[in-house]
Amino acid sequence: MRDITITAHAIHRYLERFAGNLSPRAANARLRKLLSRARFLHVCAGKARLYALGDMRFVVDQGALVTVYRPTYKDAGQIEDFWCLA
């Protein structure tokens, strides 16, 4: 994760959602530091890789940090299958 390019979109989203009081240069440095501590979750559609650190999610595709977001939903869990009860 050393050769990751931080895109302008990722910096903008980070400033918008997490740290609005930073300059873009400081946000770039902060994102690099956070991304180095993030752990791999899984491969998304299109072969992008999803990393997580706390409640932050990082999408990395072809060596570039594409976006940063916070999940806004909780997993519903397993749903009861009533078809087998009929």
Can you characterise this structure?
This protein is α+β, with helices and mostly antiparallel strands. The mean pLDDT is 86. A hairpin with a 2-residue loop joins β3 and β4 (56-61). It has a five-stranded mixed beta sheet with strand order 1-5-4-3-2. It is built from two helices and five strands, in the order βααββββ.
Short description:
Helices cover 28% and strands 28% of the residues. The protein has 86 residues and is of the alpha+beta class. The protein has a 5-stranded mixed β-sheet with strand order 1-5-4-3-2.
E-strand count:
5
**Apparent shape:** globular
| Strand percent estimate | 25-35%
Low-confidence stretches: none
- Biggest beta sheet summary: 5 strands, mixed
Mean pLDDT: 86
Write the element-wise H/E pattern from the N-terminal end onward.
Answer: EHHEEEE
Structural class: alpha+beta
Strands side by side in the biggest sheet: 1-5-4-3-2
